[in-house]
Amino acid sequence: MMINIPIADIMTKKIIALNRKDDLETAEMLFKKHKIRHIPVVHEDSIIGMLSYTDLLRISFADAFNEDEDEVDTVVYNMFTIEQVMAKNLVSVSSDTPIREVAQLLAKKEFHALPVVDEGKLVGIITTTDLINYMIKFL
User: Fold this and answer.
1) Is 18 exposed, middle or buried (0-12, 13-18, 19+ CB in 10 A)?
2) Is there a contact between 128 and 106 (Cβ–Cβ < 8 Å)?
3) CA proximity to 109, closest of 122, 86, 93, 132
């Protein structure tokens, strides 16, 4: 296994992103449609935050109700904006950061995803799933 190759070799380059003006219903739809757990929030080409599926679960009362979960989510989602729910103080890596360094950062900070930013522009996302899939190739 090569641990010093750049993260660009394994990161997700096809970015599913949200705009800060999108609503939380759109975010939930993207999470489910693409089977992902983290979505960068962008303004033009710059990342301004990261929204996780867990962030949505934290504000949703759907688990507390057995009746008409979709309606409950809609009411709750209309109470918040993406900017209110997303993580704002992001740690990012560049595309030339070695895999080992990214893995250490994810483990130390207990993150599950990091935006990959080159010269202020979002160019990808690296997740623990990307790292696991890379490691599986060598098992």
Assistant:
1) buried
2) yes
3) 93
List, for residues 50-73, the tens digit of each pLDDT value. Answer: 999 999 988 875 445 444 455 445
Residue given tokens 């790292």 in the structure block = 131
Question: Is CATH 3.30.200.20 what the domain over 7-136 is classified as, yes or no?
Answer: no
pTM value is 0.86
Residues 109 and 52: their CA atoms lie apart, in Å, by 16
Q: Which residue has the tokens 């939930």?
A: 28
Q: Where are the domains of the chain?
A: 7-136
- How many CB atoms within 10 Å of residue 40? 24
